[in-house]
Amino acid sequence: MPVSTRSSDAVQKVEEVVHESSQLLQGQVPGHEELSAGHPIHPATVHWPIAFLTLTFGITSLDLVPLSLYPKSILPPRATLNTLAYYSAGLGVISALPAIITGLGEAYELIRKEYIQKGKDWNKVIDSAWNMKDTGGRKIKMTIKHASMNDLVVGLAGYNWYRGAYYPGQKLPQITLLLNAIALPALLYSAMLGGRLVYEYAMGIQRQGHGKEVREKEE
User: In 3-state terms, what secondary structure has residue 201?
Assistant: First the structure.
């Protein structure tokens, strides 16, 4: 068998494994539809990381408030902020891991579907996404923005957690505090993009479970 043929077969086999793995991350069991989850997994994994990351970035941003303006009557003592931020950062990073992993499955299947629909031409896929020429392209571009922003803020939270472990109780450097203040609206914007993918573009909706049953009845 020629080397090129063996390589092609190996690539195809790898693609099949990745495809089936991505389906599992979506909550589907290849070849056993009756075992699939009743709804996509990824949307169910995002709420805790959003909550904890919002908390940690909000708390660290309070360190930018001058002492004379800090509302100590309604907020925790200033000295406890670093500890609170440390634990919320750790919880945010840990709870974000399932969301990131299942999100990769959703993103892979979306891009794979567009690649097949566009005649397995990557140039068409990239052009469609970059210029948002159709619904598929808009979904890919929005997914990439959503995922990349989330990865950046989780990475920043990871740094906060790491630094808090090695320098307990110490205030973060000023530049890191500023990055945390920027990360807070970035996180919320990214969450909004995720919501749009579900509610505006119906990503993952009616793919499995009861939603699929409703779609099939309507058809």
Answer: coil
Mean pLDDT of the chain: 86
Q: Where are the domains of the chain?
A: 45-206
pTM: 0.84
Q: What is the pLDDT of residues 72-116, one digit of tens each?
A: 888 888 888 888 999 999 999 999 999 999 999 999 889 999 999
- Tokens describing residue 114: 């567009």
- CB count within 10 Å of CB 37 equals 14
The string of DSSP letters for 29-68 reads: -TT-GGGS-SS-SHHHHSHHHHHHHHHHHHHHHGGGS-GG
Dihedral of CA atoms 94, 97, 100, 101 in degrees, nearest 10, equals: -170
| Number of neighbours of residue 51 by Cβ within 10 angstroms | 14
SS3 content of the chain, % helix, strand, coil (to 5): 80, 0, 20
Q: 106: Cβ–Cβ under 8 A, 6 or more apart, which residues? A: 22, 25, 26, 40, 42, 143, 203, 204
